[in-house]
Amino acid sequence: MRDLLEQAVSVAVAAGADEAIVIGFQVDEFSSRFANNSITVSKRISEEEVTVCLSRGRKRIISSTTDLVGITSFVKELASILQSLPDANFSYLKQSSVEYRPNRARVDDNLIYISEKIPDLASSAINSALSAGASRVAGTISASLVATYIATSTGIKGEDRRTAIELNVRAFSDKNTSGQGIECSSSLSGFKPEEAGLKAGRECVMMRDAKQIEDDFYQVLLSPTVVANLTDYVGLASSAYNVETGSSFLAGKIGKQVASDTVTVIDHGFIEGCLGGRDFDDEGTKTRSTPIIEGGIARNYIHNLSTASRWNTESTGNAGLISPHPWNLEVTAGDSSFDEMVREVKRGVIITSNWYTRFNNYQKGEFSTVPRDACFFVEKGEIKHGVIGMRLSDMMERLLKSIMLMSKERAWIEWWEVQTPVLCPWILAEGVRLSRAFG
Q1: Out of 64, 150, 193, 288, which could bridge 125 as a Cys pair, Cβ 3.0 to 4.6 Å?
Q2: CA-to-CA distance for 102 and 161, rounded, in angstroms?
Q3: What is the pTM of this model?
Q4: Does some domain include residue 379?
């Protein structure tokens, strides 16, 4: 891949490009899917892709291909198309002759050669859920090695590798009763599938007496799974590009209070145990840690070179060739235990999972989301019964400002409802509107 990228850069320069950025991706993943307590499918996927960005004058073109054999023709075609494009507002690279070498701290060799162990790890989750009282268990488990390479016409070169293993398990007992467990780790030693299975099994059993509640404002105790989903949108709102395009509720909020003073959200290019990120971004800028919210105050937007130029600042190492994006988000821990937080709930709901988060208005941060799997009504600090058929509707800033407590315990979360890996706690917020989703 390194040789291929350097070849593509040479072809681009020879074809008349003023600047070329070529990024290569290699993904090797082994996964198993299970349903009705048994593994149904196991497969290995190996994928390669190259993204090419060419510039000439004020014209720019970006495209990707999986046809690596035809990379020379692909680059030449892009260079020829450049002449007919309108001018674009972007910035050229400012670094040269930088080389990034793989960070060994990001790779666990045990996850590279794990294919034979994946079914056993899935079985551990299944058996734990069944032992907790579930009658049916389903889910997915996958381990991956992701390698990213970069080469530019200015002399930037780099390679980055990372490993991760992720489990999403759902357990069922009776009709309309389910629980979810998520376990994510960058190393095999930190991966505990039996804990995820046990959690899913216990919670589905607790949902057997579930019922609907009335439309009203409640205290809500949100699990790391839910907090991660909402924090993912905070990270996207911090992108300077999304601020520019009018799709961010953080627009105009730098230096202003946007959350409870207990809330700090940081984006990390790399942090120990993280599931995503790299040492360099898509422009070859070194990644770093950037506070987005600090003590409840909005501190920074995240930038690539182009947005940084327009904002008269510097790149934060978050490129996206078009739009900057977060790598790994961290919500700092609080000082409460889960049991202490439950005791503080006078009238509220514990929400352990959610999906279908949608925004009615991105600028205002007006959104709704649907709780799923295990939810529980709490009164005077005591869990009374399971809850089904809810929708949560709120404004992001109002919800962030209403956070009362945060847990000491935190977990890494990444799954199809959380695209950016997030390290986050449980949070307790007040005055949140819950309404019936049906009936």
Answers
A1: 193
A2: 6
A3: 0.96
A4: yes
